[in-house]
Design brief:
It is a multi-pass membrane protein. The protein is an all-alpha fold. The chain has a domain of 26 residues. The chain contains three helices and no strands.
Length: 74
């Protein structure tokens, strides 16, 4: 038997898995910095929370683009 295995299937799933790492790290950083800012200035918690949700929405839009892109590329 030949010890080399043939790779079959779509590499799109691997590509999306790698593309999901970036938004995952970005969301973690945004949430961590929001918690840090709230700890430093508790009176700004409301404004920081609103900015956090806006940032998370923009980061997750990148993840959705990462999902959709392989379907449109030839």
């Amino acid at each position: 038997m030949d010890m080399l295995a043939e790779v079959t299937g779509s590499l799109n799933t691997v590509g999306y898995g790698l593309a999901a790492i970036g938004p995952g790290v970005g969301v973690g950083i945004v949430i961590g910095k929001t918690i840090e800012g709230t700890a430093r200035q508790p009176e700004m918690a409301g404004a920081l929370r609103g900015n956090m949700f806006l940032g998370i929405a923009l980061i997750e839009a990148l993840a959705l683009i990462g999902i959709a892109t392989p379907f449109f590329l030839p």
